[in-house]
Amino acid sequence: MRFLQPTTWAEALEARAAHPEAVAIAGGTDVMVAVNFGRLRPPVLLDLTRVAELQEWAPDDGAVRLGAGVPYARVITELGDRLPGLAMAARTIGSPQIRNRGTVGGNLATASPAGDAHPALLAADAEVEVASVRGTRRIPVTDFYTGVKRSALAPDELIAAVRITPPSGPQQYSKIGTRNAMVIAVAAFGLALHPDRGAVGTGIGSAAPTPRRATAAEEFLAGELAGLWESRGELPAATATRFGELVAEASAPIDDVRGTAAYRVHALSVMARRALTWAWAEYRTAKESRPCD
Amino acid sequence: MRLTCTVNGSPQQVDDVWEGESLLYVLRERMGLPGSKNACEQGECGSCTVYLDGTPVCSCLVAAGQAEGREIGTVEGMATEESLHPVQQAFLDAGAVQCGFCTPGLLVATDDLVTRSLAAGAPPEDAEIREALAGNLCRCTGYEKILDAVKLAAQRMAAR
Hints:
The complex is a heterodimer.
Chain A lengths: L1 E3 L4 H10 L4 E3 L5 H6 L7 E4 L9 E4 L2 E5 L4 H8 L4 H8 L4 H6 L2 H7 L6 H7 L3 E6 L2 E6 H4 E3 L2 E2 L6 E7 L6 E6 L10 E8 L4 E7 L9 H11 L11 H13 L11 H25 L8
Parallel strand pairs in A: 1-3, 2-3
Antiparallel strand pairs in A: 4-5, 5-10, 6-7, 6-10, 8-9, 11-12, 12-13
Helix pairs in contact in A: 3-4, 4-7, 9-10, 10-11
Chain B lengths: L2 E5 L2 E5 L8 H8 L18 E4 L2 E4 L12 E3 L12 H9 L8 H17 L6 H7 L11 H16 L1
Helix pairs in contact in B: 2-5, 3-5
């Protein structure tokens, strides 16, 4: 095994191009588990922790450009106000030790259907910025997940950053597991209300071969809210219930060691209904929309 | 490969490190520092918690090469020749140690929590302690005496 440790982004992309068989490692919370258990013996480990460009985030063209190597602990402490949905997801991840190392870029690269960041990224219409020596491209996160632990990332590409537009309305995140910490989600749900464009974003985790949106639920709710954004009126209970049902219908879960498919479907309907209730209550009491930069 | 880093303030250099090795393995098997414990090897139990450049991490999930040039702090660096670290003494006094396997990781995690809390001006409250130690599993104590030990350590460290 070889261990490559580029210190600049250009070097990292060159190393990636020269070694498409390499496994990239950042926080190690996925890669090292597989290595420790003998499930992974990559010919090359490509360590990205010395690439300074990946450890930064900055406002960029109306969005937050979050470097792929920023650990969850910093998403929580530095971006809780700008990216509330992602920060809520980050708080549910692992333990303090894991959040000190694990990164959103790593979550995307692993592309597990159970990855905790995905529902929040889907709901917020995030874009994944990937790069190779050939150039840089942006992939809407909805198109990024292509199968169980498979993504649109090409063999010579690395994930540079995630771009997320700060919200114009409330965001929520909900996750079910056997305890609060150190849990792989049994099911998860992310919600973003976009009053600026009368739209709704959703993300489902751990309940389909890939993280996915609940498109029919988004369209239904956007229609129901069309007359309510302005008045900030009460949301009919039946609307929240129907939204939950449509979210559940968008899932395609399996029975596994963490839970049954039937439980996941039910849990999603409950989480979606509750997340909407919380988000709408927040929207009704908010005087103005959130400032963005 | 060769690995050079600082452990508990002392420069360390080891050769013939396999590139897939964890920092935990290097510490225990190559540097003679078996204080950090190897239990789950998947970041679930916290028994291998060490400081990496001042941040608590599971050393089983740090690839050896990622520690190159870094400063590592392990449980072996806590006590002095003369006395135990106040967190260690508090764990003993509160009866927070039974089989002891989880203790090194809990000591490092507790030291980090108490140090950060006191720097912010107040000892940690129950909810903060539970959250901060959520990644350290103990199968003996039922945690109650560990909570007592953290509070005792915070009290004593605040008084120093």
